[in-house]
Amino acid sequence: MQRSDRFGSRGDKMIPWGKLLSVLSVYLALAATAWPDSEAPLPRTAVVGVTVIDGTGAPPRADMAVLIQGDRIAAVVPRRDFAPPAGTKIVDGTGKTIIPGFVGMHDHTHVPGNTFTGEVAAGLWIAGGVTTVMTAGSAEPERELALAREIAQGERIGPEILPSAPYISGPGGSPAMAMPADAAAARAFVRDWSKRGVQWFKLYRHTEPAIAAAVIDEAHRQGRRVTGHLCSITFAEAAVMGIDGIEHGLTSATDLVPDKEPRSCRSAVPLLDALDLDSPEVSRLIATLVAQDVTLTSTLAILEGRFADRPQGDARSLAMLTPAARDRLAAHRAQLEADAATTRWTSAVWEKILAFERRFVAAGGTLLTGPDFGRHVVPGFGNQRGFELLVEAGFTAPQAIRIATLNGAEALGLSDRIGRIAPGYEADLVLIDGDPARDARDIRKVETVFVNGQAITPAPLIEAARGRFGPQ
Ligand SMILES: [Zn+2]
After folding, report:
1. What is the pLDDT of residues 128-162, one digit of tens each?
2. For residue 102, is pLDDT > 60?
3. Residue 214: which residues within 8 A CB-CB, separation 6 or more?
4. Chain segment 393-425, per-residue pLDDT in tens
5. Transmembrane region positions (predicted)?
6. Residue 132 Cα to ligand 1 middle (Å)
7. What separation in Å is there between the alpha carbon of 57 and the centre of ligand 1?
8. Where are the domains of the chain?
9. How far is the CA of 105 from the centre of ligand 1 (A)?
């Protein structure tokens, strides 16, 4: 689905008649010798001498030039072959790295407790280099849809948002979520929310299989996609139903619970300590997901917060929290310490969670990533943390960037225009003052974010969000 089908292209809002100008710019480029550059309507910026990590997983290419023209990437060439067109603004890329904008695939507009955080998140996402998000379940879908439109129309700085319907759950689940009574009601729900503009549906832990099957089938009829934070339904059951994505990975794979009754929700977490990743059950599970082409969304940033021996948020993230969020975090940390002797969240379990993601990818699976929010995990910085943890899991930096960019774009059906650095792609780019392939933490050193070609400096956006993320 093209952005212009949904909200009007973001190019249209930055420059009137953006589409027309894009066509014209190609004509101008072709006719450059006959048509003076001074009449070219589109601003041009070139980042020169930069290392390119292009989103495909290919190794970094050093000493490159990336030419941005209007809202598009116009050229990606070795610096020695680059002759900037007259009037091009030159940005020195020496010692810097450029990557595609992150595609966040578990990026809610709320935090637990249902506080709508979309407006604060919008700026933080951009500041952290996130230019597209899929919200993976909405607590306030009308506000989320409105925010997505505001951004698309240029009234607010933010990423392109692919909105979600209200979460769907079932008996025993949260009463705040939708619980369609039967398959017909589930289909009506999907049609209604599709009409209102949502792109994704999210099945939550207690969804009944018959409801899930109806949601998935009807969503696909409407050109929409479905993901799930599953429990009552196993990954394999959902895969066979045709679900598009599954959230969180190993910790919610109830396939591995030995005596799980159908339709019952039993946590997989207690068995992880004893789980043998080389067991046939794990291999079969991964093989089923790969065969059914189901994506898995890594949410390591939020999961990390459950482990007492893991970092609990950097100073930058903590500075964004509201006082109420800080109080919650303090209570959470006290609980972690109180539970330290008996916790199931051990370092051995952490290693298995990472290894499972590695194995899934090694088997041909498509891994996506998103931070999920709550505790110390905030938009933008949380997405960066997700990248760092994928590298810790054993992926190379280019692989981890692919997971965070092109894989997400493919899962959204948008890989013809975002998710990689190549001519013709939208100029959603992150210029980093460092080398994340050398040190993953350099991903935090965002110097400039290009959003559809518009250069944005993170600092004012971060300042505007200080003390404002989380419940009031
Ligand atoms: Zn979530």
Report:
1. 999 999 999 999 999 999 999 999 999 999 999 99
2. yes
3. 180, 183, 184, 186, 187, 190
4. 999 999 999 999 999 999 999 999 999 999 999
5. none
6. 17
7. 27
8. 10-101+422-464, 102-417
9. 10
Q: pLDDT (tens digit, 9 = 90+) per residue, 186-201?
A: 999 999 999 999 999 9
The top-level CATH class assigned to 10-101+422-464 is mainly beta
201 CA distance to ligand 1 centroid (A)? 13
Quote the ligand 1 centre to 171 CA distance (angstroms). 19
pLDDT of residue 7: 38
The pLDDT value recorded for residue 205 is 96
Give the Å distance between the CA of 152 and the centre of ligand 1.
24
Ligand 1 centroid – CA 230 distance (Å): 11
- Ligand 1 centroid–CA 86 distance in Å is 48
- Distance from the CA of 241 to the center of ligand 1, in angstroms? 22
Q: From CA 260, how far away is CA 281, in angstroms rounded?
A: 14
